[in-house]
Design a protein that fits this description.
alpha/beta, four-stranded parallel sheet
Length: 255
């Protein structure tokens, strides 16, 4: 029997880049799973959690946990949201009775998309094609909290026609940091500029990443500073979902 996988779409994907959700669903299905998208899912609660409002975060967390009842796995195309579900949900409910074990069981079923494909489904290629040089940006949560680094690169390296090129530095932040970019826009912009300089060093044709928040931040900064470098979520490349313009691009930019 095929495993039943709940796709945690994420707020940004739902509202800003639905193509990432469709690409993720396709990749999971092609990995031999049945994909379900529970209608009851909403925000993972990370903004409230980071803002120091644990009660609201707990309310959202319980809604999420119960929306995905009956799923063998829960997969998110975002290291940030996956880390919230997998690591911070148990911390929010530690010492809170029976619900603690319910949340811990849920967290144990949560995976980031590329990690799920490689480490759980043992999928090393997707049959995608892309002609050009690609450098991959590692989002802070995926890299530091979930230890995801090799998985997206392994999948990208198997894409026909794609040349994977590395930036000089892997670990520096893109400057987004969720609420950080709102509270400290000048610092955020400076951090983004440094990251962009590093990503441009190997002369890529495309920047990929596993978190839409990071990619929107980088793509927006690139556009505002007049640098013509497209950004896409790694799922879009791996699934061959390249019909929509790159992130923050209009139709005129693609000409």
């Amino acid at each position: 029997m095929k495993p039943r996988v709940g796709l945690f779409v994420t707020c940004l994907v739902d509202l800003m880049r639905p193509s990432v959700g469709f690409a993720a669903a396709r990749l999971i299905e092609e990995a031999g799973c049945v994909v379900v998208v529970p209608a009851g899912q909403t925000c993972c609660g990370q903004p409230a959690y980071n803002a120091g409002d644990p009660e609201t975060a707990r309310d959202l967390a319980l809604q999420t946990v119960r929306a995905f009842e009956g799923c063998d796995f829960v997969v998110a195309p975002s290291g940030s949201c996956a880390a919230m579900l997998r690591i911070h949900y148990p911390a929010l409910f530690k010492g809170r009775g029976g619900v603690e074990s319910e949340v811990e069981a849920f967290a144990g079923r949560v995976h980031e998309l590329t990690s799920f494909l490689v480490n759980v489904r043992h999928k090393t290629e997707t049959g995608a094609k892309f002609s050009g040089r690609v450098t991959h940006h590692d989002a802070c949560s995926g890299l530091r909290e979930l230890g995801i680094r090799s998985e997206p690169r392994q999948l990208l390296a198997a894409v026909e026609g794609l040349e994977l090129v590395e930036a000089r530095e892997v670990s520096p932040c893109c400057g987004f940091g969720g609420l950080f970019s709102v509270k400290y826009p000048e610092i955020s912009g400076a951090v983004a500029d440094r990251k962009i300089e590093d990503l441009r060093a190997p002369a890529p044709d495309l920047v990929t990443g596993g978190d839409l928040g990071c990619l929107m931040n980088l793509a927006g900064r690139l556009r505002r500073t007049g640098i013509h470098l497209p950004c896409r979520h790694v799922a879009e490349v791996l699934a061959g979902e390249l019909h929509d313009p790159p992130i923050a691009w209009g139709e005129e930019d693609a000409r």
